[in-house]
Structure formats: structure tokens, C-alpha cells
Amino acid sequence: MRKLSFLLLALGALAIQSASYADGPAKNLAKPRASKAQKNTNFRPGELWYDTDGNVINAHGGGILLVGKTYYWYGEKRAQHQEEGVNVYSSKDLYNWKYEGVALTPSSDPAHDIAMGCLMERPKVIYNKKTGKYVMWFHLELKGQGYKAARAGVAVADKPTGPFKYVSSFRPNGNMSRDMGLYVDDDGTAYHIYSSKENYDLRLARLNDDYLTPTIQDSMLFSKHREAPALFKKDGKYYLITSGCTGWAPNQASLHVASSPFGPWQLVGDPMTGPNAKLTFDGQSTYVLPVPGKKDAFIFMADRWNPKDLKDSRHLWLPVQFKEGQPTIAWIPEWNLGFFNQQTIK
Ligand code: GAL
What we know:
7% of the residues lie in helices and 43% in strands. The protein is mainly beta and 346 residues long. It starts with a helix and ends with a helix. The site of beta-D-galactopyranose has 10 residues, from strand 5 and strand 13.
């Protein structure tokens, strides 16, 4: 009897769980499904994701860098509303992340460009082989000025965990610079992709050899009021996922394709499919991670922002699938890297 009631209970719990996914992604769930101490073996987009100390991972608008066999995840350290620097986590398997501390700390000098109270958004880190430095770029808004400054900020470190040292901030070639990403091509050429002209123009600038400044090779890719750019490459083609401009509220993603980073970029359409695809599953793109050692394996990373409590914004990691050669992304409530072994690449 005891056994039977346990079975019924378990079946009931399973039914509730699958029902919550029947209509597409659930909103941020209040309760974690895994216990804090448990090792993660899956990605569970939208759910609370704990680091190895049992704290919720606080790395928003982020990106990943692979160094040897270790991944580093950089992202905005958020309080309820404020931004408190750039956090860094490390992992060997992409599921379990160790908190490595604040990689870039805001300055206690109120006159500093990165004075505490400024905004350092969408940090991305790349490694420069020539200088041996880790180079971070981020979207900088000066303290107390809202989103008026529209600058790119740069910091460097000798180690992936930092501490990163602030170098400078500027409007690249005089252009406003807000949401941004970095991309390093196979030949080591690096690019800064950024929303400009009040977010109407999406621009791309090739970086100088040390990756610290943009060159004047800086072009407008298209003027479609897009932000949150995430660029990746597969089979010689460049793909770019962007969001619309609705602040913290989710909107429809779009995918562009080109045979060179400078374009011409052709609109493919919305890469998201299935329920709630039109709102990017309540998320906004931040990065696409190529999974090393796995052919054609890419992870789409997005933020499900919670403007009432930004630190509670959730991470959405979903596999990129290729259907008739085009990247598509569907909601999967729970998955792991084995997913990439199963899919047939067309
Ligand atoms: C979004 C942007 C975020 C953040 C937010 C502030 O459009 O992608 O990074 O800046 O606006 O409202």
C-alpha cells in the first residue's frame, strides 16, 4: 500500500511537471527543482541555477571564454536594480560553475568612468595571443546619466579570472555604442559588434591587433533598430541573432546570415520555433557558444530579465539546431550535451 501511494504521488508530480511545459516555457519558477548541493547534469532553462557554493549564478548579459579545458563565464553582477561589476565563474563541464569572484570591480572614486553606480553591461572577454592578455569589452554607462553616455569600455587582465584593470572607454570612431558582443575569427581577427545611433544602427568594427581599440574599419551592417547581438560561424557562414529594442521586455528575435562579418547581411527570419517563440521564450539573446569537440554544436544563451529584481533574471541556454542548413532554436525544458550526438545535421 505504501509503495502504491508513493507511486501515485510520483506519477502525480510528473504530470504536474510536464503540464507546466505543455504550453511552452514556464515563467521564472519560484522553486528550484534541484537541491543546492546536487551536481548539475542538465541544463534547465529559466530555472534557478546554483553555483558550486550553492548561490544562484549572477552573471547576466554574459559570454563564455574557453581557456584550455576550462570555461569562464563572465556576466553582469546584478543587485536588485544596481549593477555591481562583472562576475566570473569557471567550469569544466558547462553544467557546474564555481564562483571565481568579481573580475572587474567598479571604482570607489566617484569621478572614475567606472565609479560604483555606473552600468557595465554585456561584458565579453577574449584572449589575445600576441599580447598574452585577456581583454574585456563591455557597454559602459556613466554613473547618474541613464543610458546617455553610450560608450564601450575596455579592461585587461593577465589571468582569465582577473582582476581586470580598466583601460579606457569611448564611442568607437565617434559612434554611440550600447548593446554589444565580440567575435574572434579563425585567423585571430577580432570584431566589436554594437548597437549605435540610439540603437537604430547595428555596426561592426575590426579591432586593432592588441584588441584594445577599434580600427577605422567600422561599418553600419543594417539599420533595423536591433540589439543584443550574438554572432557565430558555421561552415564559413556567419550568423547573427539579435533582439528588438523593448528594454527589459522580451520581443521577437531575428537571424541574419552573411559570408563576411562586414556583410552584406541577409535577413533569414525568426530562428525561434514552437510555443512562445515570438517572444524568444521570454528571453533576450546574449551569446552563442560553440561547444568544442562537438561538431556543429552551438548553445544559444539568453537572459530572461526580471526588472523588479535584476539579480533574479534567469539564464536560458538552448541548443541551436540546424534544419535544412538554417539555425533554429526550440524550447527544451531540460537537456544536456548528449543532445548534440542525437541530432542529425542536414
Ligand atoms: C535592453 C538591453 C539590456 C539593458 C536594458 C535596459 O534593451 O539589451 O542590456 O540595457 O535594455 O533597459
